[in-house]
User: What shape does this take?
Amino acid sequence: MSININRALAAFTKKKYHIIIPFTMPSLALFLVFVVYPYAQAMYFSLTKWRGLTPKPTYIGLANFEKLLGDAFFWNALKHNLIYLVSIPLITIVIALYLAFLLTHGRARFRKFYRITFFFPQVMSLVAIGVLWSFIYHPTIGILSSIAGFFGAPEPIAWLGNPDLALGAVGAVVIWQAVGFFVVLFIAGMDSIPASYYEAATIDGATRWDLFWKITLPLLWDTIRTALVFLAISATNMFAITQTMTQGGPNRSTDVLSTYVYERAFLSGKFGYATAVAVAMFLLAFTLSLLTMLATRRESVEY
Amino acid sequence: MNKGISRREFLRSSTALAAGAAGANLMPLTALAQDGLPFEVAPEAMNPLGLESGANVEGVFFEGGFGRSYIDNAADIFRALHPENEMSVEGIQQVSEILRPRFIAGNPPDVIDNSGAFNIPMDSLVADDQLADLGLLMAAPSLDTAGKTFGETLFPSSQLDGVFDGRQLYLNVAYTVSGIWHSQSLFEEMGWEYPRTWAGMLDLCETIKTAGIAPWTYQGKFPQYMVFGCLMHLVHKTGGMDSIKAIDNLVEDIWKSDEVLQAVSMMHQLAANEYILPGTEGLTHTESQAEWLQGNAAFIPCGTWLENEMRELTPEGFKMVIKPVPGPDESSYESLVAWPGEPYIVPKNAANVVGGMEFMRCMLSKANAQFFAKEISAIMPVFGGSEGVELSSALTSALQAAEAAKGGFNYLSRGWYSDLWTAVKNATGELLTNRIRPEQFAETVQAAADEVKADGDIPKYTHE
Assistant: This one.
């Protein structure tokens, strides 16, 4: 009998490509046309001088990348991306973990209500959020200025008009928007941790702090890793929110790579150079997700 | 260049034209095709470019401060003139994003209003040879000014910036005057008088501040309004046309020259003396203009589109007027920045180039110019364009100012070196929030100008 099974297996292995290939072809074709080809094309455009009006760019080799290295505005935008990259994932995850833990283990009433409320910003479009927050940040009629005035601020604060505040103001909106999603994600993760672990630990005298650090966090590690990658990628983008709220201003204090790409391409008509910036941006995002995956690669605990 | 046109010339041309029209009445008219037209068209002006019947025209237009009613009005004239041809009108804001793919694919629309903050840079379009030569159109008979060519009905010099190597490549449909706006009603009520020198301006600012109103505001997040609405006027008043041309021609260290530095320092005094509405830098253009309309600030820089842009938010009885920026002494009071704007193009590769040009004949017709003056309160560079129209206080004051300034002046490098003017804009924002001093302003902007000058990829032009 065992021979028969082996033969059948061998026959299946031989034949499996007859099945796999036709089934994967359509998606592979779509992937090639809509993902690989545009990427390759962008790589090519980054080696050209192109105003974005004719189908014929001029090949100039690596000149765009050479220029990029000496472009202070590029480094300025990159710096802001890096600031976001460090701060946004960290702050978002800390807040989300805190809220999720409270909602799972605290004696909060209206748990469902909070869950929905926290999640709400996630279903709004970033542009709508940008407009909404522009009103909140409005120096004369905005609610934040009224609050600051109540606490004795002598003058209205131009949150988005002050180069020292604008970057933080835009970043805060992204955190506000993202927290809800990760709260829900973390709650789902925490709910799947068996209650008996907590009970056992509590009987052994563990404090809530211990429960969080010794049970919740290790068992939630996979989810947190995913969250980190998501947030890191969104921190390298930041286009929609920046474009709606500040267009990179004042004086380039909120410029990020994506808005700089937009400015160079659509407003200055330097598509070749802009694509070079975009390629640099792609490399950054790619390296980052790779690094995040590597750095957070721990044995995941099975339970 | 930029002699522009005075109101007096407007009126003179209007009378002459009225006489011409009376003469035309005596002639037998081709009655058949006149149906539905708001004016009479001479037989030779019916279809001088030879538009084929059935060839449809696709128009895509920037829809901004001037709205779209004047475009629709021009399209209606076109439709009445050519009932056999369909004309489509689409209004957009992101011109560059939406129309670039059409250019790359080689099928751009037949006529485009390439304006707004997100326009396709004209220098790119010219360098890539994407624009149709409008020479035939310029030489064609005008639609509703008998005995004149289309080109002759436009203000002299209003279309000069659209000429490249002797070819007319775009047409400006608006004539914009910029300067400082205030509410005449408020000033009368408070007994204030608009100053004739910058020192007088600063004195009045002190008085206004004491009265509990912020003397100035500007379009905060878009500091370029202070550049074209104040700074460049001051440069003209301190250094004359020589300084303006030197800036356009990237003359070495011009931004550090005494004249330019003086102008920058004059503007800086508004910030240094805290005459600017606190929080201004966080406002958008419409938000700051709304603050001004609510009486929270006395002065705001802007162009003549202001009245139409803010029409719905303007309180009853708010009499807005525009005045020149006062200079170091009275003798330089009159001069101001005025420019032909809202450029329209006909792409060379459009399916119906003739149709695009024929539409432009309707767009810049006298009838549409009058519609523009009446409904939009703005000026088209067309002779007789304000004839028979009751003008608003804003438009009257703009025409008076333009007349006194003999048409005003313009700085041309705005359309040539966008990187330079982005740097000026950003530095102006920093200066007006007291984050940098005038000397640092000069350093920063000069560095940007040097960079533009050294960049071989940017084509260079000269302001003669």
